[in-house]
Amino acid sequence: MTDPRIIDGKAFAEKLRASLTQIVTGLKQDHGLVPGLAVVLVGEDPASQIYVRNKAKQTAACGMRSFEHRLPADASQTALLSLVAQLNEDPAVHGILVQLPLPAGIDEHAVIDAINPAKDVDGFHVVNTGRLATGAPALTPCTPLGCLMMLQDRLGDLSGMEAVIVGRSNIVGKPMVALLLSANCTVTIAHSRSRDLPAICRRADILVAAVGRPEMIRGDWIRPGATVIDVGINRVPSETEGKTRLVGDVAFAEAVAVAGAITPVPGGVGPMTIAVLLRNTVVAACRQHGLPEPAI
Ligand code: GUN
Question: Class of 31-116 per CATH?
Fold first, then answer.
C-alpha cells in the first residue's frame, strides 16, 4: 500500500492530462481549434533534450499540436530572436517555450522579452510576472502553479497558513510567493543567506524547497505535520559505482517521518510541471481565440 503521506505527483499529472485531453477534444469539435505548443532547444544539453522530448510527446498525447525547433549550440542570438519572431506570428502556435539554460553568449532576458506575452506559456515575460504580482490575469510559471495545485488538492483552503519558501529564483521562488499570497497564506521567502534557516523552516505549515542543493533540508527543520513540497531535482552519485540517482532538496527519509505530507523526488513536482505547461497552452489558445477559459 502506498504511504498516504506521499503526494503522488505522477497520478495528479495523469489526472490533469486526462482533463486536458477532454477539453482539447471539445475545442476541436466545437471551435475547430487545436492548441499548438512550440518548444525551442538551443544546443545539446542532455537533460534539456530529455525534457524537450517529453514535452513534445505529452503535447501530442493530449491531442495538441507540437512544434519542435532545434538550433545548434553556436547559433547566434539574432537567429534565435528571428525564430521567436516567426513563432509569435504563427497562428497555429499558441504557446512558445524556449528551453533554459541557453548557451553562453545568448542573453536570456532578451530572448524572454521577445516572446509575445500572450504566448509565453512559461510565464517568464515581465508582463506576466507583473500581472501575477498584481493579481491580473497572467500566464503563470508551470512549476509553482503545479505546486499550488497539489497543495490545494491536499489541504483545501490555504488561508492563514504559514508558508516558507526556500529559494528565490525567478522560475520558482518568486512566483510561488505571489501564488501563496493570493491563496491568503502568510509567506516568508528564505534563501542561502537567511539567518537561522532551520528556525525559519520550523515555522512552516507549508514548506516549499527550491534551492537546488541535494538534501539540504533535514528532518528536524520540519514542523511535525507540515506539508513539504520538494522542487529540487539533483543528480548525485549512487551507491552503485559509476551510477547516479535523483534526490530532492529535502532529506526525504528523515522528512517523511515528520511531515504530514510530502512530494517525493522523483515522482512529485517534476511530472506536474509538464502537465501544467500543457494547461497553460490550452488557456493561452482559448484567450487568443476569445473563448472562455477552462476551469483548470
Ligand atoms: N529549464 C528548466 N525548467 C524550465 C522551465 O520551466 N522552462 C524553460 N523554458 N526552461 C526550463
Answer: alpha beta
